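Sample entry follows:

_____
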Amino acid sequence: MHDAIVHPSGARMRWVELPGADPARVYVHGLGATSAPYYAEVAAHPLLPRNRSLLIDLLGFGISDRPRDFAYTLEAHADSLAEALRKAGVAGASMIAHSMGGAVATVLAARHGDLVANLILVDANLDPHPPAPARTGSSGIAAYSEEAFVSQGWKEVRDRVGPHWWSTMRLADLRGLHRTAVSLARGTTPTMRELLQDLSIPRAYLHPEGDAPAAADGLRASGVQVLGIPESGHNIMLDNPEAFARTLTTLLPPDAP
C-alpha cells in the first residue's frame, strides 16, 4: 500500500500500486466504492501492457483517510487527487475513472492538465441532476440533509442499494459520502460535460451497450469516442472485464511499452 498526505490535517490518500513502466495509469472509483475491488482484475489483465498502475481511493472512501474539515466537493476531490499524484511522481497519466470518479477525473484534467494525458470515463456523471428521494445513488443520498443522512438516512440507503454496493459503501465516511453526493448532484460550473468537451487530450466515454449517454452526438462532435461495452451494466469493469480490458487496449497510448 502507498500513501501521500494531501490535506493540512495530515489526512492521507492511499492506493494499491501495480509496478510497471510509465506513463502510469490511474484508476478512480465511483461514489461509495473503492478502487482495488473494482479494478484489480482489469488492471492486471494479460491483455494490458504492464504499465505502472495506481488503484487510488479518494478522501473519505475505501482505505483513504476521512478528514472532517474537507469539503468533499468534486473540485476538492480533484485537487487532493492532484496532490497525491504529484507526490507519487505521476505526470501525463491515463485516467480510467468510473461514475462519480469520472466527474472528479474530468475536473482534474481541466484544473491540472499536466497530470492527465488521456481520459477514459466509464459510465460517468456529466450533468447535474436534482436530488430524488427513495432513489439509489447520489440523487437519493443528496435528497437528505447532512444530519438526517448521518443519523438515520444511511440505513435507508443501505437497504436500497443492496449488499454488493453496500460492501464498499459501508467503508465510506458518512459525511464525506453525503457531501460528495450533494456536489455530484449540483455539478460544476462549467458542467462536467462542458469541461470534457473543451479538453484537448484524447478522451473516451464507455457505456453499457444500448444505453448511450445523453447528447452522445455532441460528445462525438467534440472528439470524445463514445463506445458501448456488451453484456454490461453500470459497473462495466466488473460485469465484462474481458471486453473492458480489450477496449482499453484500443484507447491507451500507442507507445505504451
